[in-house]
Automatic annotation (TrEMBL):
Its main location: mitochondrion. Keywords: Iron, Iron-sulfur, Lyase, Metal-binding, Mitochondrion, Transit peptide, Tricarboxylic acid cycle. GO terms for molecular function: 4 iron, 4 sulfur cluster binding; aconitate hydratase activity; metal ion binding. This is Aconitate hydratase, mitochondrial. Binds 1 [4Fe-4S] cluster per subunit. One of its GO terms (cellular component) is mitochondrion. It is found in: Mitochondrion. Belongs to the aconitase/IPM isomerase family. PROSITE patterns: ACONITASE_1 (PS00450), ACONITASE_2 (PS01244). GO terms for biological process: tricarboxylic acid cycle. It comes from Drosophila navojoa (Fruit fly). NCBIfam families: aconitase_mito, PRK07229.1. Residues 592-719 form the Aconitase A/isopropylmalate dehydratase small subunit swivel domain.
Amino acid sequence: MSKRMLARTAERLRKLCRRAVKPLTNQWNVSMSSKSAIVAMSKFEPDTPLPYKLLSERVDCVINRLKRPLTLSEKVLYSHLDSAGDQDIKRGESYLLLRPDRVAMQDATAQMALLQFISSGLSKVAVPSTVHCDHLIEAQVCGEQDLKRAKDLNKEVYDFLASTSAKYGLGFWKPGSGIIHQIILENYAFPGLLMIGTDSHTPNGGGLGGLCIGVGGADAVDVMAGMPWELKCPNVIGVELTGKINGWTSAKDVILKVADILTVKGGTGAIIEYHGPGVDSISCTGQATICNMGAEIGATTSLFPLNERMIAYLCATGRGNIAEEATKYKEKLLTPDKDCKYDKLIKINLDELEPLVNGPYTPDLAHPISKLGENSKKNGYPMEIKVGLIGSCTNSSYEDMGRCVSIAKDALSHGLTSKVPFNVTPGSEQIRATIDRDGMIETFNKFGATVLANACGPCIGQWDRKDVKKGEKNTIVTSYNRNFTGRNDANPATHCFVTSPEMVTALSIAGRLDFNPLKDELKDSKGKGFKLKAPQGEELPSKGFDPGQDTYAAPPPDGSKVKVAVDPKSKRLQILEPFAKWDGKDYIDLTVLIKVKGKCTTDHISAAGPWLKYRGHLDNISNNMFIGAVNAENNEMNKIKNQRTNEFGGVPDVARDYKANKVKWVAVGEDNYGEGSSREHAALEPRHLGGVAIIVKSFARIHETNLKKQGLLALTFANPSDYDKIQPTSKISLLNLKDMAPGKPIECEIKNGGSGDKIQLNHTFNAEQIEWFKAGSALNRMKEKMK
């Protein structure tokens, strides 16, 4: 870029920042006009520069090798290759060794990740890393009281996370700071970033042009240890947006539509890349919403190209210097090449996009708002809405809150409030403080809302719900991202619908699913009909963001003297013992612990909610293993037959009996097994309780990797109908394991009584992953290499 162009760009950015917002009062000490050679990745890591120069050099190297136009996803991903000069690059085939820029962990998954890091024997993390306390705060009364209660209940865990972060050089965000993905967007995400995070909704950072990918804790340990991170080279699905977002339609409707098109597994093994003129009508935080919920279609991650909405957000959050630096690399790194090829292309005209409400029980079952009432009656969904909930990591931006407040004010002006309990979750302390200053919380209170803590809360099942009994059929509407059975309140009879926060607000005023705010009238306090006005709200606060309370703890320069202690009698934390190495023998006559019927998410394998308190104690949390999965033998949950005693029992109890009697077992499942959360506990628990293999029709990406990392054989039926050949009483043998090789199927023998049947099982293990299996886990293998 020429000096003249740079000068023009800098002047345009200054004008854009001045026009967009008043910057944060605690803005960085590096200004837009600074000539400093170093622009830091974040204000919390002033000595860690943006890597654009190095990334640009790597992209040049890859382009010279491939000699073809690159998608944006490819530019960001390949610019982080450990060895750009000789890495095999084939979309959908090769395994890439990558160097992520940073690691982020939320408190529920960080416990196990840090316990694994401690056992590695390393003294400090090798890349910038952070821990965020957002998952352990249960919604009961209101934000202030719930936060105080959580700090008391979880003191042992918070102290462990804080001291471990200080000792090993991680930044620590205290309880009350906000949801991990909102904190990342506000402080750490930048265009061209490659970040891994131990939460499935890490892709939220794609709203700022970064490749942010959800992983299990063992992957995080690899990167924090300074090792390359391995990822199967993703395919790229393009989504071309035309037209403009307007009226009741919001950014959330874009991803709800994409979920409708691709389904919960249609994005597996692919990055979703948004482009086209319609992008410019979506705010930066709206783009983050779209990327966040890409996790629900199985996508590796999602992202948008650098655009002026991102620049405005960077300026508003005190990062104008990053905006300036990123703009220099816009064409080279941060936009797709002309004529680049996508593996699949979806086209959406935003002018024609109708607001959607998706559910229940799956996030890909879409109902246009004009059809929601009709479809609900036809399917027997409870028409009365019991609770409306807005916020979560998906929809808790200043813009989201402002648009909902405009609807609430409209209702209040007609003498109406929410007809049902209405819960609001601010995404961060910065959002809470800003909407409080700007009078939004006061409006929500008048509307009848309860403002919850800056945390995940009901979105992940941290909700002490009292208004319905377990098993009572009911409907809730949320602006969350996930609505699997029992996800929010542990009630399998709750019909949860996900939609935009604006639509949740409107439906909560009506109290019914058969209300369409685009066409239907409400009755005001005097019985007169009126229609709600289309929502409006500022994209960014005109007065600038209020940072609120300081909730960040930086690590000391030298953490070697910090003590980290785990009480051997603790019920919350447990030092990990290494898993046993493979003994070199075939697995003969394995018992089937459970044959799972239907959808089996990581919530089914390792439930959240009240079980979150045991995330740092492998043995205790293993008492929830498979308790939500449906047993194909009897269509019941948590009731299987112990093949050793012929008695029925809970799945964890039977597994413990097998382990005590040295009975090795397998679990069998169907399609997209392990979809949903990134929680590696869904892999650790089967390994801990004696499992050796999981055999299914197909896997979700993160869970398949997590199983491999913990030394389990993740296998798929070469012929999916072979699932029907396995019975609860079957004996399974996995043969010729000593000859296991990439791309070579595993021979499997199924014995049913006196008869036997041989089938083929496929796998995606590469050479290094086979070494994980032989060593007993990826962590064991890492220790072998270090020695």
